[in-house]
């Protein structure tokens, strides 16, 4: 007796990413890969049904009731709509054989490679991709049978991953900013690149500072601001005494300077490409402005824990007390305060001697004439001397900050100390050469952009400008050609007019002579000679006038 039963159509088998592609959620092909490594990507998939007996991908395809036909890897360029099937080398003859579709259940695939845990790996030959850029990749199963119903009955796609092919090294764009050779102490110096830079900490690049040719300092001398396509830095003035460097030359080297993990440091883009070796050390040479430090102010930020209720006057007198002038706070100026949690955060400026008295109007005791930076260091050292703990003595860390305790209930954190030049120094040293203002402005604008268009390393806007300039120059050349052609035409017309005029004059002279010889009423031979002489004089006069007129008109024309 026949048994009747209902069999439901099974959905297309599932497949999942595995291996390195799955761990990294994609792949990156960059300049760090060598030779054939740039042409191949290992693609590993997993079979979620591997634990079922004899249920490998190939056996799933070969089952009598199976509808599984293909397990394709496909890709498309970011922004495209059409998916293309990935290709692989022929398993039998990888060198001369034809390229094959990357199909994990194709007859030409060695299915003994599928492990007992359901993993199968094939090699994708990415040479067919051609263009560099960002790609989307997917792996999925395709089933036959034309079953009507939801998509999962006829196919299954694993989540889309991202692939990047970037075989271009980052490069320095333009000149370091600022463009002037003389810089203020504390002024940011920055380098712009053609694409975004890896700014993850710890930095992959190193730096070295050389002052006055022989005084070498490490990267901790700098406060680095790496962001987007820019590496900016300024000198940590808590680690470099302005009095020791004003007016001196300074050379900064960044990039392939020093080692990390046994490898040379370098500047890398977001896809792992480094500056080329020949350009891997970026050298910047500047000169510190020879500031009048006795007229300069010193600004810094101070944090005071648990003192949000303290007014500006109390803070001023406390700092003045640490400086050694408890009765004279005229040179201490609080430039703003804020309360963050329980911390009072204040911007403090120590003014120069003359400005302290004039601006604040205080009656001060005899001043020893100390510069503002001297008073800052005095305040720092005096406050630190009251606390000998390791934490209290760590005045300024690598980020330009440190903690100071005064032995009572005040605790200070100092950071971002900088020298503020006087007004005359600002006017003298801060002004950019007028010829460089436009270039510097454009570089600063580009520093905030994401990428610079790849047109001989020029930004798109510059390419457009140059294209317009080319059109203008071409138009000028065309106009000049037309002018020359017009001049030549006018010259020919002028010569033709003069020739016709000359021929007309000669013809009139000939008529006169002919008439003279044919006159029947001539009275005598003598009269004929007289008439001939007169005619000759007239001819010579006409020729002279014609020549003069020709020369005059020619000179006038050429003068145009």
SSE arrangement:
Layout lengths: L15 E3 H6 L1 E4 L10 E7 L10 H6 L5 E10 L6 E2 L1 E2 L11 E2 L17 E7 L7 E11 L11 E3 L3 E5 L6 E6 L4 E2 L5 E5 L12 E6 L3 E3 L4 E6 L2 E6 L6 H4 L3 E7 L3 E2 L2 E2 L16 E8 L8 E9 L6 H12 L8 E9 L2 E8 L2 H8 L11 H14 L4 H4 L7 E5 L5 E10 L2 H7 L7 H11 L12 H59 L6 H34 L2
Parallel strand pairs: 2-11, 13-22
Antiparallel strand pairs: 1-3, 3-8, 4-5, 4-9, 6-7, 9-10, 9-11, 12-14, 14-18, 15-16, 15-19, 17-18, 19-22, 20-21, 23-25, 23-27, 24-25, 26-27
Helix pairs in contact: 4-6, 10-11
What does this structure look like?
- The protein has 560 residues and is an alpha+beta fold.
- It is built from 11 helices and 27 strands.
- It has helices spanning 19-24, 57-62, 242-245, 312-323, 353-360, 372-385, 390-393, 423-429, 437-447, 460-518, 525-558; strands at residues 16-18, 26-29, 40-46, 68-77, 84-85, 87-88, 100-101, 119-125, 133-143, 155-157, 161-165, 172-177, 182-183, 189-193, 206-211, 215-217, 222-227, 230-235, 249-255, 259-260, 263-264, 281-288, 297-305, 332-340, 343-350, 401-405, 411-420.
- The strands form 7 sheets. Strands 2, 4, 5, 9, 10 and 11 form a 6-stranded mixed beta sheet that branches.
- A hairpin with a 6-residue loop joins β4 (68-77) and β5 (84-85).
- The longest helix is centred in the last third of the chain and has 59 residues, at 460-518.
- It is flat.
- The termini are far apart.
- The model is unreliable at 356-367, 386-407 and 453-470 (pLDDT under 50).
């Amino acid at each position: 007796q026949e048994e009747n039963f209902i069999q439901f159509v099974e959905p297309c088998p599932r497949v999942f990413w595995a291996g390195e592609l799955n761990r990294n959620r994609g792949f990156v092909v960059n300049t760090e890969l060598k030779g054939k490594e740039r042409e191949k990507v290992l693609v590993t998939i997993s079979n979620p049904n591997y634990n079922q007996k004899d249920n490998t991908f190939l056996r799933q395809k070969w089952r009598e009731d199976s509808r599984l036909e293909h397990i394709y890897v496909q890709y498309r360029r970011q922004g495209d709509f059409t998916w293309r099937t990935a290709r692989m080398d022929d398993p039998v003859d990888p060198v001369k054989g034809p390229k094959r579709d990357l199909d994990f259940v194709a007859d030409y695939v060695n299915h003994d490679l599928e492990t007992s845990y359901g993993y199968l790996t094939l090699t994708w030959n990415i040479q067919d991709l051609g263009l560099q850029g960002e790609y989307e990749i997917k792996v999925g199963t395709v089933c036959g049978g034309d079953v009507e119903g939801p998509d999962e009955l006829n196919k299954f796609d694993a989540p889309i991953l991202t692939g990047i092919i970037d075989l271009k090294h980052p490069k320095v764009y333009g000149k370091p900013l600022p463009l002037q050779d003389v810089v203020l102490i504390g002024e940011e110096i920055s380098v712009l690149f053609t694409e975004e830079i890896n700014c993850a900490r710890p930095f992959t690049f190193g730096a070295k500072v050389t002052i006055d040719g022989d005084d070498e300092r490490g990267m901790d001398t700098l406060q680095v601001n790496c962001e987007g396509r820019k590496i900016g830095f300024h000198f940590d003035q808590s680690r470099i005494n302005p009095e020791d460097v004003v007016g001196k030359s300074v050379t900064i080297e960044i990039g392939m300077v020093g080692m990390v993990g046994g490898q040379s440091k370098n500047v890398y883009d977001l896809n792992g490409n480094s500056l080329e070796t020949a350009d891997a050390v970026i050298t910047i040479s500047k000169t510190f402005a020879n500031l009048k430090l006795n007229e300069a102010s010193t600004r810094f930020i101070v944090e005071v824990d648990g003192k949000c209720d303290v007014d500006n006057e109390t803070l001023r007198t406390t700092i003045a007390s640490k400086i050694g002038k408890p009765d004279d706070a005229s040179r201490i100026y609080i430039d703003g305060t804020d309360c963050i949690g329980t911390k009072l955060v204040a911007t403090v400026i120590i003014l120069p001697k003359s400005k302290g008295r004039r601006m604040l109007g205080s009656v001060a005791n005899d001043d020893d004439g100390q510069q503002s930076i001297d008073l800052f260091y005095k305040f720092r050292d005096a406050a630190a001397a009251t606390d000998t703990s390791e934490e209290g003595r760590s005045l300024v860390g690598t980020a330009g900050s440190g903690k100071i305790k005064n032995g009572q209930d005040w605790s200070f954190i100092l950071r971002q100390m900088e020298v503020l030049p006087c007004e005359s120094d600002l006017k003298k040293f801060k002004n950019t050469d007028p010829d460089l203002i436009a270039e510097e402005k454009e570089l600063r604008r580009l520093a905030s952009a994401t990428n610079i268009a790849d047109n001989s390393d020029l930004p798109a806007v510059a390419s457009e400008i140059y294209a317009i300039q080319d059109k203008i120059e071409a138009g000028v050349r065309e106009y000049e050609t037309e002018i020359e052609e017009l001049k030549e035409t006018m010259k020919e017309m002028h010569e033709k007019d003069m020739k016709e005029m000359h021929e007309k004059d000669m013809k009139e002279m000939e008529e006169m002579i002919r008439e003279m010889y044919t006159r029947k009423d001539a009275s005598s031979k003598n009269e004929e000679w007289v008439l001939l002489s007169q005619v000759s004089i007239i001819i010579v006069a006409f020729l002279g006038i014609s020549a003069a007129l020709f020369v005059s008109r020619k000179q006038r024309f050429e003068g145009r």
